[in-house]
């Protein structure tokens, strides 16, 4: 009887060890998948940042070039934009 009980206990322990090993294997697979997803996301974010930086630099260059070509028009546009912003701000202050 004790031998049978010992054998049953040993079988249960071996089964639990096997289950634990399978669970650890699945956890390692999931960890690797998450690590890969994080790395892909990091690479994508860096590409977006680089493209955005390049686009911003291009925009600054184009604006400065436009200002140098037509300075009077640029000053007039800045005055008009300032006037519109000033009017909007004064209206919002009056409403408060």
Report on the architecture of this protein.
The model has no long low-confidence stretch (mean pLDDT about 90). This protein has one domain (about 1-95). The protein has helices at about 1-70, 70-95. The chain contains two helices and no strands. The protein has about 100 residues and is mostly helical. Helices cover about 95% and strands about 0% of the residues. Helix 1 (about 1-70) packs across helix 2.
What topology does this entry show?
Layout: H1 2-69, H2 71-95
Helix pairs in contact: 1-2
Strand content: under 5%
Terminal residue distance: 90 Å
Please state the structural category. Answer: mainly alpha
Largest β sheet strand count, sense and barrel closure: none
Order of helices and strands: HH
What form results from the Cα inertia axes?
A: elongated
Mean pLDDT: 91
Strand tally: 0
Number of helices: 2
Entry keywords:
96 residues, single chain, 2 helices, mainly alpha
Summarize the structure.
The protein has helices at residues 2-69, 71-95. It has 96 residues and is mostly helical. It has one domain (2-95).
């Amino acid at each position: 009887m004790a031998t049978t009980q010992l054998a049953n206990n040993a079988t249960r322990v071996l089964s639990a060890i096997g289950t634990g090993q399978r669970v650890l294997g699945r956890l390692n697979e999931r960890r690797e998948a998450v690590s890969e997803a994080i790395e892909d996301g990091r690479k994508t974010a860096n590409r977006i940042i680089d493209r955005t930086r390049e686009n911003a630099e291009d925009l600054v260059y184009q604006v400065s070039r436009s200002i140098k070509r037509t300075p009077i028009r640029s000053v007039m546009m800045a005055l008009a934009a300032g006037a519109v912003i000033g009017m909007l701000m004064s209206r919002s202050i009056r409403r408060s």
